[in-house]
Amino acid sequence: MLLFLSVPQPRPPGARTRAGAARAARWRRRQWLRLQQLQRLRGLLRSLRGRPGTGSHRRGRMALCGQAAGAASLPSELIVHIFSFLPAPDRLRASASCSHWRECLFYPALWPQLRICLRVSPTEQPRLEFLMRKCGWFVRELRVEFAAENYLSGGGGPGDGGGADTGTGGEEVEAPQLSNRWLEVLRTYLELVLCVLVSIRNNRNLQKFSLFGDISVLQQQGNLSNTYLSKVDPDGKKIKQIQQLFEEILSNSRQLKWLSCGFMLEIVTPTSLSSLSNSVANTMEHLSLLDNNIPGNSTLITAVELERFVNLRSLALDFCDFTAEMARVLTDSNHVPLQRLSLLVHNVSVMHKSLDNMPNDEHWKALSRKSTSLRVYIMAFDIKSEDMFKILKPSIPLERIHFDSYITCVSGAIVDLISRQYDKFLTHFILMNDVIDTSGFPDLSDNRNEDPLVLLAWRCTKLSLLAIHGYTVWAHNLIAIARLRGSDLKVLEVTEESIDFDQGELADQDVDPVHNLIEQVSLGLGQPWHAVMDIESLSVFTEPNRHFYREMQSFSEDI
């Protein structure tokens, strides 16, 4: 008699129903793949133990280094899993082990985001081409920053007055050499931008795309960048090709949620956003378009175009482009509440565009009612006090403000106005001045009973960052600021050359005024403090555009 024994087998999920047949098939497929992987790992472990029967610990150790247990024998899945725990630099070093590891290095799951900071130098082009060729077609988040090579090293550009001194005959020859150098910089810049855009033109998985071109040193004396561009690209073919590629990327995108382009020479045009499909525009969450090279009254985005971006949560624009009509569009019921708004106020834009169309106080009240969590970040480049009085409406929920001056200094009245109107919101206050004045730095407390900076620290209870250069800060006022805000003031950056002492403090022979200042400010803040000795170490001073752009990015991401 034959006896058949039935051993129960694990039933795949959903197998009892007809609708679960497909899921059961997929479950069996996964079980089979797991079994295959397990068998491969068992074989690997068997080879790591060495030859059976030898019993030699030394031979077992040698087997670890043998060909059977080499790096090439590890499964690709295991290598990728190991790489996932490593930071990007360590992955690159590990990929040098063998060709098999190098093939696993650019597995798409390992590079969901790519952040690149490039010097505008010919030596960067081969490396950029290799990296973008490997990752450009699948990367989901791409952030690229360009910076001129001599700007990173602290050298002067053709627009900042550094380089040639026409007063001495021996240095006159430096001017054409400097011009040739910056022509080469712009030529390389165009090639690098083309390399990036060509590599991602067909990437439909792109979700966050951010470009920043820090060659603003060419823009400090008028529209000098266009003069150099006309020499590098006389017929405009490369610029037109770049603009077409940018529009092609927008038209091919299907998942784009974040689009940011700052200070890139003539890449974005007033018609670029029309390339976005309605479905992508309707789901866009962040939009940043900053460019000082747009001629005349042209704008990169209009109120009509903004109506398509109904899901926008953060926005960054030139202040002159942010009109009252745009504010009305953002308060419509079909738009989600805007939470972050970054505005760049530049003297070039104010000269060519009118402030008559900017939102009034009622528009700001409506925006604040629409979104109680709305916060505003303003950066002002060389703006006159009378224009700032027009811009700073009382109902703006201003959280951060950054003044950067090369020609026009900020007045004490403006600082006093900010401390009175935005005491409930203000957390960041930056005051930078690079005006060359032989009479010394301007004193904001002139003809005033109280120093405006001390009043700012007293009124703005949420103040966490205060940075000052190029304005006189009296030592006793600095001590008062530290005591008023205490440990809540996380960052207090004041350059050593901006600090001044009263005659009484200097006359006291028993106390070292500098040592006393450091001690008292440190006690007030509850942490060690020193004045900034080297102004070149402050990126907010040496690279204001880059600082604003990075702060804007983090400001918008912090929702």
Automatic annotation (TrEMBL):
Classification via PROSITE patterns: FBOX
Source organism of the structure: Phyllostomus discolor (pale spear-nosed bat)
Lineage top rank: taxon: Eukaryota
A family per Pfam: F-box-like
Name recorded for this polypeptide: F-box only protein 33 isoform X1
Coiled-coil portions: none
Domain F-box: 68-114
Presence of the UniProt keyword Iron in the record: no
Keywords noted in UniProt: Ubl conjugation pathway
Example GO BP: positive regulation of protein ubiquitination
